[in-house]
Specification:
Transposase; single chain
């Protein structure tokens, strides 16, 4: 009588780096074999390294070898299938924006009058987490005083009106919310190293920001604003990021999308800005 197979022994063919290539990281491809959607400049290189990526996906790298079998199973259940390359791509792009200055404004957005510099304000670009710790990525946006109407107005920066996170983060929230429930969006964002609560995601999803340019990458519909920013930061060769260049990478000025400027009178916008700054200081 033949003894039952030992469950601890792997079957032939399941050993080695080529095991189950179907679960390797892959770009969504069109029937013709190409990448669906137009990729921004520089992202073609991701298609080349795809063949090097094999095996199951674990966020943040491989499970440490010193963990027990039960611990590995628990870790695997808590991880989402986000390719580490995408995590690194997004994380590096957002982290590189820390401290970037936006200080360009041609004229008053309310009356078109001449503006002079007033002060510099810190704005939250994104909130990231790494190794269990949260880190706020902040940029600095110059405020101007209009000599004609007396309004205080911000320099051009990649922020939608009445939002407390940068436009690439808002775009990503909107696209993911079209593909899954809000709680799953928050989980996927956190798997990418981005912290956004479910209520904020729901708020963004209820608003109209216009059509978001996007493409399929790593099995997700991702905004070009974020991908362009990622490739821009990869190509800058460690030189300081200029605000105007980052603004263009994020897709501003937008064509047929939500205006950079807030709604309402200059006084109402100033009041909203002051409230946001107060909440930013308290956070």
């Amino acid at each position: 009588m033949q003894s039952p197979p030992d469950p601890t022994v792997r079957e032939k063919g399941n050993i080695g780096p080529n095991r189950d290539r179907s679960r390797a990281y892959a770009l969504n491809q069109s029937p013709g074999g190409g990448i669906s959607g137009a990729l921004p400049c520089g992202l073609e290189r991701l298609h080349v390294v795809r063949s090097r990526l094999t095996g199951d996906v674990i966020i943040g790298g491989c499970i440490p070898s010193h963990t027990t079998a039960q611990e590995r199973i628990a870790i695997a259940k808590k991880t989402l299938p986000i390719p580490p390359m995408l995590v690194d791509l997004v994380g590096n792009a957002l982290a590189s924006m820390d401290g970037v200055i936006f200080d360009d404004l041609d004229a008053c957005p309310s009356c078109g009058g001449q503006v002079i510099g007033h002060d510099m304000r810190a704005k939250r670009f994104a909130v990231m987490h790494d190794n269990g710790k949260e880190h706020t990525v902040r940029v600095f946006v110059k405020r101007f005083y209009c000599q004609d109407c007396g309004a205080l107005c911000y320099a051009d920066a990649p922020f939608y009106p009445d939002t407390r996170l940068a436009s690439p983060i808002v775009d990503l929230c909107l696209l993911l919310s079209q593909q899954m429930p809000f709680n799953q969006v928050a989980q996927h964002l956190r798997a990418m190293g981005i912290v956004v609560d479910r209520g904020t995601i729901r708020n963004y999803a209820s608003r109209d920001f216009g059509t978001i340019p996007a493409t399929n990458l790593f099995g997700f519909l991702l905004p070009l604003s974020l991908l362009n920013l990622a490739t821009f930061t990869l190509d800058r060769e460690r030189r300081p990021i200029v605000g105007a260049e980052a603004l263009a990478a994020c897709g501003f000025p937008p064509a047929g999308r939500a205006s950079l400027r807030g709604r309402g009178t200059p006084e109402e916008r100033n009041q909203r800005n002051e409230q946001e700054e107060k909440e930013e200081r308290e956070s």
